[in-house]
Design goal:
Blueprint (H helix, E strand, L loop, with lengths): L1 H5 L1 H4 L15 H15 L2 H14 L3 H26 L2 H5 L4 H14 L5 H13 L9 H20 L3 H28 L17 H8 L5 H18 L5 H31 L11 H13 L1 H33 L5 H16 L3 H6 L1 H20 L8 H23 L20 H23 L1
Length: 457
């Protein structure tokens, strides 16, 4: 992109020297890229899910949090590494088929972009800022004015993609971490309450699986398909050019981002658990964080909560507008990057005004359809030599996609309707796609080996 070329010099600010061979970043450079990656991931869903998990899981909070870490941290970082090894998300998905790659990528980018995740950043931020606004005013007008200012600022940064890593790695990322540490530290020193004596919802029977499924709501596995391109391009712009060196550097930065995410998730889960007896009927993690901050810091706590959500959501919004705009500009080059970025911001601004509750209500079926296929793609990317044996993975993806899509459609339009899919192992846990995917992979591998042995004879 033209703006990337103009800002390339700014990227060198975090290179700190790329070693004698020019194929590694020093420790400071790796940390800054890792913090930037953390900032891109850590947005609205990341903030509001772990505290509610802590409240509802009660005595099972530790086990539930471990399950959440697998899908909320392990899978996104694994996806970043898989994409780095393949070169791009498109190159990874093309192993299944070019048509599948195009359709899946477009649906994913729309889901994590203007139709869901980007509007959610503004809606969540507004809900946290609203207590600071004058009482008695028109909430709809305030929401509109806030969303216009929010997306105008995000677009201003997104139009200069090379500045994003520098901004998040040096400024907004560290500031977000510092504010989170302050809030959680207050809860550790003087807990507001105690964990619930019994777990709620699915956390009572299978807390680890319930936590794992909650990790879908972060959108991070799908977002990694976009952010992997941004981070890989940034590292390449810092002087690391060999594919194997880029993959290693992405992995190093991924470890930094993953470690930060895991620590913050555990802290937020603890905060939520300690709010169990204070608000046992909590329905939203934002309520949990807001009340905890107010109890510890009074009016200043409301300001603290608003600042945390605003910075986190703004980081994610900028990263998504930039990465998704870049994808659509390359896929549909008739419109330049700047036009795509503006379109994404405008559509997202409009949808953000329908409210957070409405956005969250239609997100679950979309995620339940796309996430299992994303997991299958990541597994393929991590298996050595998978690019030479793609047919088994195509069969596996077909099985996974069929089960997850049909289940999601049923849950969206006819909840409670009995389907033969309900007889699959693990279906009651929301993981009915696992066994068909494994069986498809194994069956095609065995058939392929038999066919090769037959031809050899």
């Amino acid at each position: 992109m033209e703006s990337s070329a103009q800002d390339m010099g700014g990227r060198e600010a975090i290179a700190r020297g790329a070693g004698e061979t020019g194929q590694t970043l020093d420790t400071r450079g790796s940390l800054e890229v890792g913090v930037a990656l953390f900032s891109m991931f850590f947005g609205a869903g990341n903030l509001i899910i772990a505290p509610l998990l802590g409240v509802q899981a009660g005595p099972n909070a530790v086990v539930a949090t471990l399950g959440y870490l697998v899908s909320g941290v392990g899978l996104p970082i694994a996806a970043i590494v898989a994409i780095a090894r393949a070169g791009t998300a498109g190159a990874l998905l093309d192993r299944i088929g070019t048509r599948f790659s195009r359709v899946f990528a477009i649906l994913t980018y729309l889901a994590i972009g203007p139709l869901l995740a980007i509007p959610r950043t503004a809606s969540t931020s507004f809900e946290m800022v609203r207590p600071l606004l004058p009482s008695g005013g028109d909430a709809g007008a305030f929401r509109l004015l806030f969303s216009l200012a929010f997306f105008a600022a995000a677009l201003a940064f997104a139009l200069h993609p090379a500045r994003i890593v520098r901004l998040m790695g040096k400024v907004t990322g560290p500031l977000l971490i510092a504010l989170l540490v302050l809030m959680v530290a207050a809860q550790v020193v003087a807990p507001a309450g105690d964990p619930l004596p019994t777990a709620q919802a699915g956390y009572a029977a299978t807390p680890a699986v319930a936590g794992f499924l909650q990790g879908y709501q972060t959108l991070d596995l799908l977002a990694s398909l976009a952010f992997g391109v941004v981070i890989t391009s940034s590292i390449r712009g810092l002087g690391v050019t060999r594919p194997d060196a880029i993959a290693r550097q992405v992995a190093r930065s991924g470890v930094v981002a993953g470690t930060l995410m895991a620590v913050v998730y555990c802290a937020l889960s603890y905060l939520g658990a300690r709010m169990g007896t204070v608000m046992p009927q909590a329905q939203n993690g934002a309520e949990v964080i807001s009340l905890a901050a107010s109890m510890h810091f009074g009016t200043a706590g409301t300001v603290l909560t608003a600042a945390i959500f605003l910075i986190a959501c703004f980081n994610v919004c900028v990263g998504l507008v930039s990465s998704i705009g870049e994808y659509f500009a390359k896929t549909f080059p008739r419109l330049p990057y700047r036009t795509w970025a503006v379109l994404i911001a405008v559509v997202s601004c409009g949808l953000s005004n329908v409210g957070l509750t409405a956005i969250l209500s239609y997100s679950v079926p979309v995620l339940m359809a796309l996430y299992p296929m994303g997991i299958c793609a990541v597994a393929m990317g991590l298996v050595p030599g998978s690019q030479r044996h793609v047919l088994p993975w195509r069969v596996s993806m077909a099985c996974v996609g069929a089960v997850s899509t049909l289940s999601a459609l049923r849950d969206a339009f006819a909840p409670g309707l009995a389907l033969p899919l309900d007889l699959l192992p693990l279906s009651s846990m929301g993981l009915g796609w696992v066994v068909p995917g494994i069986l498809g992979l194994v069956a095609e591998t065995v058939v392929g080996e038999i066919a090769r042995a037959h031809h050899a004879c």
